[in-house]
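fwd from M.: "can u put these together and see what the complex looks like"

so here's what she sent:
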Amino acid sequence: MIQFTIEDRDGVRQHLEIPEGINLSLMEVLKASDYNILATCGGMALCATCHVQVLDGADALPSMRDAELDMLDTLPDADSDSRLACQIRVDETLEGAVFRIRG
Amino acid sequence: MISTDICIIGAGPVGLFAVFEAGLLKMRCHLIDALPQVGGQLSEIYPQKPIYDIPGYPAIKAQELVDNLMEQIAPFHPTFTLGERVESLDQQADDSFVVTTNDGTSVHCQVVVIAGGLGCFEPRKPDILNLERFEGKGVSYMVKNPEQFRDRRVVLAGGGDSALDWTIFLADIAKEVTLVHRSDSFRGAPDSAGKVVELAQKGRINLALQSTITSISGNGHLQEVSITAKDKTVLNLPTDHLIPLFGLTPRLGPIADWGLTIDKSAINVDTTDYSTNIERIYAIGDINTYPGKLKLILCGFHEAALMCQSAFNYVYPNQKLSFKYTTVNGVPAF
């Protein structure tokens, strides 16, 4: 199991356990876990409604590709620890990570 | 006042297809959308992306689907109000509605169909204290009429194509142009980014990179913006206009205040006909919710067809609806 933590917009934290090899993005997992995330574009890094802040474990995540960088660059409130949940695959690199929902 | 049978709020694919289904039943439609063009999120967010689950099309680009829908509904001559947001809904004594937009456009109709997708696309607003107080008083989120900036001092914020393009354009019009961007480089079109840097080198615009606007002030109208750099130095810059350009994000908007039953930013509907809790108001497409709901365009098309069968009873209360196939009846244009 892959374990990581989600902090919602109210600051409430929840630990998630996701089976390995599930082949989902973090955005899909968040939606399936009933977090209120729009994901307008469906995971194409085109809307930034799945914007998350990586509070812990950012270094272990795969680096951003251009599409994600381009979209984050347009946001007024993005920081160096911002990511798009739709561009993060749920795998062992998320183990122990902490994400805050921003979108 | 515009008069029609059905007023469709939202001109995305589902709203457009509703025109076709309504047209087959001799019902006229007027569509209102906050975006300046039809197509909803398909045209606004991913026009060149392929869609693979539209029946009959193994793959079709989003904008191509919108263009095809516009061709398909042309025989029914829908009318449009674009670039305006529906603000209010007033039920008349005869149960019909008057729909009014933020620009004062009024539409009288027998039936309202909400096909608003994820809601209105509104500008992303940076987190600046008092920003909304200066909206329309120096702060604007789009450039509708560039002439208003002639010989004025303008600050733009953002790093995308829109910010770059308007910076280049306004450099020839405004008295002073400053572009504020959070990072030290631009990820917009390289050609545009190059032009912006060149304009800055020539002294025709000011660039404030690795900086953000942290506060604004004025006496009834915007007069100054405070720009804070990464090294915490603050520049207080006198200006007449601030244009934050950070793209669009969907919001449910005024729909939330119409007395509809709403669950997690979606309107509850009866799946018999996609009617809402208010008679004569329907909701189709991504904006509705019901057990088993799938946010798919093809599901929205199905919802539009069933909705029209029901709406017919309000538009033609004294007529019996007889179901006809287009293969038999064709497309009976108005």
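replying to her w this: Residues 171 and 189 of chain B are 18 Å apart (CA to CA).
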